[in-house]
Amino acid sequence: MYSRNFLLIFFLFNFTCLFAQKNNGYQITDPDFSYGIYCNVPSKSMNKSFPALIFTPTDYLKSNKAYPVVYMLHGTNSMQLNEKGIREMYNPSTKMREMAEMFKTIIVAPLVGNTYYLNSPLMKENLYATFISCELTNFVDENYRTLSERNGRILCGFSMGGYGAVSLLCRYPDIFSIAIERAGVLNLATNLTDLNWDKIDENITTVLGDYYTHGENYHLNSCFNLINHIRERKDISFVIEVGREDFLYKTNQSFHQKLLELHIPHIYNETEGGHEWNANSLRSLLSNLQYFRQTQF
After folding, report:
1. Sheet holding 178-182, edge to edge
2. What's the structural domain count of the chain?
3. What is the pLDDT of residues 220-254, one digit of tens each?
4. Is 116 within a domain?
5. Residue 182 belongs to a domain with what CATH number?
6. Helices (DSSP H) in the chain: which residue ranges?
7. d(CA 268, CA 184)
8. Cα–Cα distance between 143 and 145 in angstroms, integer?
9. Residue of 222, 213, 272 whose CA lies nearest to 242
10. Does the pTM of the predicted model rise above 0.85?
């Protein structure tokens, strides 16, 4: 007869193995995955780590299936770069786990600060485009069952994250295949050129410098310029979505016209409302995955 201690050890061993399908290098703080798996993702290029939450479909642990990955890029915020900060951002009201289940994807939500997902031309140590496109994707592919090719990687974002989604697809079309954005800051000088405001978002000036002395940085990194680098590629897709009352409506509408002129495949959606990010807008964005599921993953 087995001893009580032996049975306890046997139970704990099997429980541990359930979550140890790969050596993730971090602890799962919430076994039922309801609030996302928290991890610190290392960046060798910047010699630091960044918090991320990873949401999987409910059948992830029970199957051997490989899943497509949606990289969810946040907008500007004041959250701390730690577990508390990222859990406040992606609290249960955002329904991220439900979205992962609904669309049968892994959703990866990193928190990198108000960086515009750029490799800064002024601060050579700031390599956020490199982090998202190379280091984060490699980390996810190594630790999860993913469709580890460009057709299985989708960028998605709101506002600053919308810029990140579109710009990273333009920069790395061999790594990602789709960019889905809502109300993206697609023209980094929008405040001056489209809105006639007095100054540009200080988060952008921190990365690119003052507009009047570093104007070329704004032009080179604008999505309206970056899209020219991939105008001949027909294996990429964009989804552009914006509210008619959004202050970035004109910018997104103009980008839609630019894509039409270049004959680049895309979906353009106008909705009611302004600059809003919530569970409904997230669901609206991700619902566009249905158009790509049969052909790409």
Report:
1. 37-43, 48-55, 106-110, 69-73, 153-158, 178-182, 237-243, 266-271
2. 1
3. 999 999 999 999 888 999 999 999 999 999 999 99
4. yes
5. 3.40.50.1820
6. 4-18, 83-89, 96-103, 128-130, 137-143, 160-171, 190-193, 202-208, 215-221, 223-226, 249-262, 279-286, 293-296
7. 13
8. 7
9. 272
10. yes
